[in-house]
Amino acid sequence: MTRKEFIEMLNGLSEEVRLHETQDIRRAKQRNRGAHKNFGALMFAFLDMEAANPDLYRLICMAQRQEGDLATLKAVADGILSWNEGGFSGSYDMFDSAKLMGQARTFLAECNTTEEFCALIQAVHRYLIGLNFQLDIAIPWAELSRTYHEVTSSAQEE
Question: Would the pTM count as exceeding 0.85?
Answer without folding.
Answer: yes
